[in-house]
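Dear Dr. L.,

I hope this message finds you well. Following up on our conversation about the binding site, I have prepared a predicted three-dimensional model of the protein together with zinc ion. For your records, I am including the exact sequence and ligand specification that went into the calculation, followed by the structure tokens. Please feel free to forward this to your student if that is useful.
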Amino acid sequence: MDSSYTTGRYQINCPKPEVIEKILLRAYKHPLLMQVFEEHIASCNKCREIVEHVRIYYEILDAELQKPVSMKVIQFAKSISSGNPKSKKQSPPT
Ligand SMILES: [Zn+2]
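The resulting structure of the complex is given below.
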């Protein structure tokens, strides 16, 4: 039996980047998971780098969302929606 799990002090292996993103997005829902993950990235450069990328991405996204939408963007969006109906996202089976 695996009884090495003690609250606040168990190790996780490097999660996949998409999992890291989920952890960050749901940090408010899973504070313990976030805490464990923070402990992990304290000693894992690889994951810390991914976290940085995700953070920068969302900072840019957030900044973009606060800007008023420019006409260029609207025209671009229109040019996509008219005549090019392929926008299906593919998600890998879990
Ligand atoms: Zn890691």
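In brief: The CA atoms of residues 61 and 67 lie 10 Å apart.

With kind regards,
A. P.
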